[in-house]
Design a protein that fits this description.
globular; mainly alpha; 3 helices; 82 residues; single chain; 10% strand; Arc Repressor Mutant, subunit A
Amino acid sequence: MDYIEMAGKRHEKIAEILRSRITSGELRPRQRLPSQKQMTTEFNTSNQTISRAIADLRARRYVWTLPHKGSYARPPEDWEQN
């Protein structure tokens, strides 16, 4: 993906892209998300921005993270209900 040129906070935009991949099934339940290094390259951003995006998704129950292992997509029944 090219450099994200959108108004607003970048981590929120990245979180929304990842959430969309999870809810669409592109990232299946319990599937590991790309590494933070891969995402910093894909989104042309810092590790801190990716960490904030993942933290947002974790707070909304779209992912869970295992230290030194990565972040994983949660199944739909775990997602935050809006």
